Amino acid sequence: MKYTFYGQSCFELETGGKKLLFDPFITHNPLAKDIDINKLTPDYILLSHGHGDHIGDLITIQKQSGAKVICIADIGYWLGRQNIEAHGMNIGGSFNFDFGRVKMVNAIHSSTLPDGAAGGSSAGFVIYAEGKKIYFAGDTALTYDMKLLADEKLDWAILPIGDNFTMGIDDAIRSTYFFNCKNVIGVHYDSFPVIKIDKEEAISKFTNAGINIQLPAIGQGLEL
Questions:
Q1: Is residue 84 left, alpha or beta, with left meaning phi > 0 and alpha meaning psi from -120 to 50?
Q2: Are 182 and 213 a contacting pair, CB within 8 Å?
Q3: Residue 27 class from Cβ within 10 Å (0-12 exposed, 13-18 middle, 19+ buried)?
Q4: Could you give the C-alpha distances from 208 to 22, 212, 218, in angstroms and in order?
Q5: Cβ atoms of residues 110 and 122 within 8 Å
Q6: Dmax of the chain from CA atoms?
């Protein structure tokens, strides 16, 4: 399984011969200026919530790729009114797709769509594919609901670490004790001044806590 980072909380997982793109926000992120969205050809687009820094390039990429969107049901209805096919889910639900299984889990955050429409609940996802379990927390605060994932034996956790709008570094580290995962990829940092982090400090804190932390550069891939 390959992970490729595109900035903010946008990344792609390649698994089972399919490409899964998460929270597409690229063209309005100056840090991702070298990423050409016209070259992205996902089979699925997964949305954690409706904020612009997660949904910004959704329509453009969906129209050019024909990707099916996986999202909270409320956003699915909103997309349906724009003639975009979506697979709506809700918190706690799972569904088997042709690449593997997806479970939608709770995230503590707000969600409003770009036109001001309500975006329903924010969410995270657990992806079950290739014998691996990958948790994407979405935009979230530290929450005791994460303890519900402890029995999953997660292989990787993709966590926001930028603070201000989401968990910061310290709470992200605490969250790993809740769900017992020692492999972490950090997202949702550096795109705006208020979520700028000290990468060396972040790496040091995670490492000292016994956690394998990865902060790939934009465009960089990792084998999970």
A1: beta
A2: no
A3: middle
A4: 29, 10, 25
A5: yes
A6: 49
Structure tokens at 89: 């889910």
In order, the DSSP letters of the chain are -EEEE-STT-EEEEETTEEEEES---TT-GGGTT--GGG---SEEE-S---HHHHTTHHHHHHHH-PEEEEEHHHHHHHHTTT--EEEE-TT-EEE-SS-EEEEEE-----B-TTS-B----EEEEEEETTEEEEE--S----GGGGGGGGG--SEEEEE-B-SSS-BHHHHHHHHHHHT--EEEEES-SSSGGG---HHHHHHHHHHTT-EEE-PPTT-EEE-
Do residues 126 and 117 lie in contact, with contact meaning Cβ atoms separated by under 8 Å? no
List the Cα angle 186/192/197 in 5-degree steps. Answer: 45
* Contact by Cβ (8 Å): 21, 5: no
Domains of the chain: 2-223 (3.60.15.10)
How many CB atoms neighbour CB 209 within 10 A? 17
The segments of the chain whose pLDDT lies below 50 read: none
Residue located via tokens 């797709």: 97
Buried-state track 88-112, b at ≥16 Cβ within 10 A, e below 16? bbebeeeeebebbebbbbbbbbebe
Question: Pairing mode, if any, of strands 86-89 and 101-106?
Answer: unpaired
β-partners of residue 1 are none
What distance in Å separates the CA atoms of residue 23 and residue 80, rounded to the nearest whole number? 18
Q: Per-residue pLDDT tens for 101-142?
A: 999 999 999 999 999 999 999 999 999 999 999 999 999 999
